[in-house]
């Protein structure tokens, strides 16, 4: 499956956000992880850009084929961001800088 085919498949899927005890967040419909740190994770989802803010955030699971992501840590806020500029490159490129 090419990246473009995966993006089309993810766009068609419904999005689900599940927050458990402010410690585990499961997100479906993730197209790309734009940036991440221990305090902010920026995601490009099929419903727009999503910023997750918190403390000690870690990406627990990421399935690029299905668009599912799991974060752990203390989650303080989730916000869909309008008009946010996309960072150049992608998640993998940022890992190897």
Describe what this molecule looks like in 3D.
There is one protein chain. The protein has helices at 3-12, 91-95, and strands at 17-20, 24-27, 30-36, 40-45, 48-63, 68-81. A six-stranded antiparallel beta sheet has the order 1-2-6-5-4-3. With 97 residues, the chain is α+β, with helices and mostly antiparallel strands. The model has no long low-confidence stretch (mean pLDDT 83). Strand 4 (40-45) and strand 5 (48-63) form a beta hairpin. Helix content is 15%, strand content 53%. The protein has two helices and six strands; from the N terminus they run H-E-E-E-E-E-E-H.
Q: What topology does this entry show?
A:
Blueprint (H helix, E strand, L loop, with lengths): L2 H10 L4 E4 L3 E4 L2 E7 L3 E6 L2 E16 L4 E14 L9 H5 L2
Antiparallel strand pairs: 1-2, 2-6, 3-4, 4-5, 5-6
What would the keywords be for this entry?
97 residues, alpha+beta, 6-stranded antiparallel beta sheet
Q: What is the tally of helical segments?
A: 2
Mean pLDDT value: 83
Strand content: over 45%
Radius of gyration: 13 Å
Span between termini: 26 Å
- The general outline is globular
What kind of sheet is the major sheet? 6 strands, antiparallel
| Class inferred from helices and paired strands | alpha+beta
Multimer state: single chain
Given as residue ranges, the uncertain stretches (5+ residues, pLDDT < 50) are: none
